[in-house]
Inverse folding.
């Protein structure tokens, strides 16, 4: 439960099952005590005054279990819907909607604490030729490989996403331009060295990067993203497989 949910929902779900187990344990202990004392049918509670309490307790625990398990089903469905709504289906990265929400959050945090944050955009160079030469299935595999490279080179605090097509984005919280360019360089080199094999054919890729850093609390996230896009265009115009900021 803790792998999927927060602490409180996990405790609420598991607690009825634990209490039911405790009731059965108490019954077993009582039966064992009765055997030691030489009682006849010590495990039969139906002839004792405690049987009604035990029965009502078990009914109550079963009702709680049903409610909690129903809650688990609903929560998992909600989590699945949320995952589908903010995740890119091909790469498993954040999609455009989730990237925008992340950027909005970083812009608000920047206004509160004044810490700079950065955005790195990248566009795969000559990606159309991959589809034309090897087919769209190879192109899909190439995009998944780019996603894996970005996830390997990014930090756990960064948000890596796909804006669409062969364009990706990395949101870097509390990161100045130097740190953003360093991450972009790691990703650029890693992608250049990545050997992508599709149907026994090797595909080599490079990417161009545009980096922008927000240091002005009045600049909104959309303007920052536009600056990164302009820098990306300069990288493409300047020969590709390079970083501009």
């Amino acid at each position: 439960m803790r792998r999927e949910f927060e602490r409180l929902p996990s405790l609420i779900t598991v607690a009825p099952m634990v209490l039911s187990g405790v009731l059965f344990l108490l019954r077993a202990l009582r039966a064992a005590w009765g055997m030691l004392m030489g009682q006849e049918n010590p495990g039969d509670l139906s002839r004792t005054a405690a049987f009604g309490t035990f029965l009502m307790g078990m009914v109550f625990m079963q009702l709680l279990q049903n409610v909690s398990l129903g809650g688990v089903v609903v929560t998992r469905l909600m989590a699945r819907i949320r995952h589908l709504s903010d995740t890119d289906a091909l790469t498993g990265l954040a999609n455009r909607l989730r990237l925008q929400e992340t950027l909005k959050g970083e812009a608000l945090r920047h206004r509160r604490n004044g810490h700079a944050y950065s955005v790195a955009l990248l566009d795969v160079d000559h990606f159309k030729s991959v589809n034309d030469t090897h087919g769209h299935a190879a192109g899909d595999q190439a995009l998944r490989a780019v996603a894996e490279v970005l996830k390997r080179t990014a930090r756990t605090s960064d948000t890596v996403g796909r804006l669409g097509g062969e364009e990706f984005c990395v949101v870097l919280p509390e990161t100045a331009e130097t740190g953003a360019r360093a991450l972009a360089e790691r990703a650029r080199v890693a992608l250049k060295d990545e050997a992508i094999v599709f149907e026994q054919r090797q595909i080599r890729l490079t990417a161009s990067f545009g980096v922008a850093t927000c240091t002005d609390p009045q600049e909104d996230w959309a303007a920052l993203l536009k600056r990164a896009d302009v820098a990306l265009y300069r990288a493409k115009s300047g020969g590709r497989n390079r970083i501009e900021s």
In short: The radius of gyration is 29 Å.
